[in-house]
Design a protein that fits this description.
With 181 residues, the chain is α+β, with helices and mostly antiparallel strands. The chain is 34% helix and 19% strand. Mean pLDDT is 85; it is low at 1-16.
């Protein structure tokens, strides 16, 4: 499958990186995974094929009902994806939709792709009776934070906390085990 980003067209038919694309949002297929891996590598600089295959098995193959792995397709090419699931009663909160990952090819940004993906995920969550969608971002990722704010997301009442639990040598061994899967 080609991972070349699609050229987006304006209403006048001229190519434009900022025009609203003719998009199809659909459930991921196995054949989409090379494009998902390539998109992630383009954005993060890391090639994580084994990781994405695990994600596909959990959210794509087994992702029926409350798990969703959706792709945005334009001109037959994947140009974005979103992954989320319904989580029940975490820390006493009623069931809510958790956005696990979202990304769009840099060349297709500013064309409404991310907004359409987020909207479709929210619609699927609503059909499952969910009234709240949550996500987390790195504190220094202003790009994704700006996107989420533009879509109506705000800081919530939950406070993420973390604690280092592995010695440096243990952490290296664990990372090596995860990449071999």
């Amino acid at each position: 499958m080609s991972v070349e980003p699609p050229r987006l067209k304006t209403r006048a038919g001229k190519a434009s990186p900022a025009a609203e694309p003719a998009l199809r949002i659909r459930t991921v297929k196995a054949a989409d995974m090379p494009a998902v891996v390539a998109l992630d590598a383009t954005v993060t600089g890391l090639h994580k094929a084994a990781y994405w295959q695990r994600v596909y098995r959990r959210y794509g193959i087994k992702g029926q009902g409350e798990r969703h792995f959706l792709v945005a397709e334009s001109e037959g090419r994947v140009c974005g994806f979103v992954i989320g699931e319904v989580r029940d009663w975490e820390f006493g909160a009623p069931p809510c939709g958790w956005l696990f990952a979202i990304d769009v090819m840099p060349s297709a940004r500013q064309g409404g792709v991310g907004g359409r993906l987020l909207s479709e995920l929210a619609q699927r969550f609503r059909r499952e009776g969910v009234q709240m969608m949550r996500t987390m971002t790195a504190s220094n990722n202003s790009l994704i934070q700006s996107f989420f704010r533009s879509q109506g997301m705000r800081a919530g009442h939950l406070l993420p906390l973390e604690m280092e639990i592995a010695a440096p040598a243990d952490a290296d061994a664990g990372a090596a085990r995860r990449t071999r899967r």
